[in-house]
Amino acid sequence: MGVKFENVTKMYQNGRPAVQALSLEVQSGELLVLIGPSGCGKTTTLRMINRLEEPTSGSIYVDGHDVRSYNPIQLRRGIGYAIQQTGLLPHMTVEQNIELVPRLLKWDKKRRQERTRELLEMVGMEYRVFAHRYPRQLSGGQQQRVGVLRALATDPPVILMDEPFGALDPISREVLQNELKRLQAKLHKTIIFVTHDIDEAMRLGDRVAILRDGQLLQVGTPTELLRAP
Ligand code: ADP
Ligand code: ADP
């Protein structure tokens, strides 16, 4: 399922456009990294895909359909979203956090539990050990894993990731990057991954899009970008 931006501009109340005349197509099954310095419009770009923000002008298409044609709530349930602050609910266990959306979709208990088990084991966390812990009883790396698993729970074809490993130490970060690469090879999701870390971008991206001051400077495979002057 592809994602396409067509001449998208976003102005907030005051100041310069946060995103300006952005046109970009992300192919189905591709992992595209959006990179650029803080404030260049990366988060805004992601949040317009699942309609947490509306563009001021231009159009965004998911699976060929204008996002305005989807019900925003259904759109958000159909697109995975993982952020640096994980958004894990502290008073809920790992299992309850992961099955949040499946529950809204009225999956029965058995199916939810099987899915949680499968997801946890995919990232090397044993269900028996971790499912009933609270987020504060996990390491930083484990919390970020659970944040990502929650975004994967209903097996959405499109996943948005906003610096999901940003708060980690370099070693945990590299472990999670490798896990994501492995998952991506297996699951063929369309992933848009935001970071300001060039090494992370080059390691993860099938293609990398460079943003500056809300504008797309360049887009290409890591090899193409390294070759560019
Ligand atoms: P990045 O993710 O690259 O750090 P953002 O998309 O968060 O960039 O922000 C892009 C620009 O838009 C920044 O100048 C930021 O201050 C501004 N901005 C972001 N969110 C809002 C908001 N809700 N209201 C006003 N300005 C905002
Ligand atoms: P990661 O590489 O996932 O960040 P760490 O090296 O930070 O893992 O943590 C190592 C181990 O310590 C983890 O397997 C985790 O089970 C355990 N651990 C860390 N913090 C806690 C905690 N607050 N409660 C229980 N176990 C913890």
From TrEMBL:
<dbReference type="GO" id="GO:0015418">
    <property type="term" value="F:ABC-type quaternary ammonium compound transporting activity"/>
</dbReference>
<keyword id="KW-0129">CBS domain</keyword>
<keyword id="KW-0067">ATP-binding</keyword>
<keyword id="KW-0547">Nucleotide-binding</keyword>
<dbReference type="GO" id="GO:0016887">
    <property type="term" value="F:ATP hydrolysis activity"/>
</dbReference>
<dbReference type="GO" id="GO:0031460">
    <property type="term" value="P:glycine betaine transport"/>
</dbReference>
<keyword id="KW-0813">Transport</keyword>
<dbReference type="GO" id="GO:0005524">
    <property type="term" value="F:ATP binding"/>
</dbReference>
<protein>
    <recommendedName>
        <fullName>ABC-type quaternary amine transporter</fullName>
        <ecNumber>7.6.2.9</ecNumber>
    </recommendedName>
</protein>
<dbReference type="GO" id="GO:0016020">
    <property type="term" value="C:membrane"/>
</dbReference>
<feature type="domain" description="ABC transporter">
    <location>
        <begin position="3"/>
        <end position="229"/>
    </location>
</feature>
<keyword id="KW-0677">Repeat</keyword>
<comment type="similarity">
    <text>Belongs to the ABC transporter superfamily.</text>
</comment>
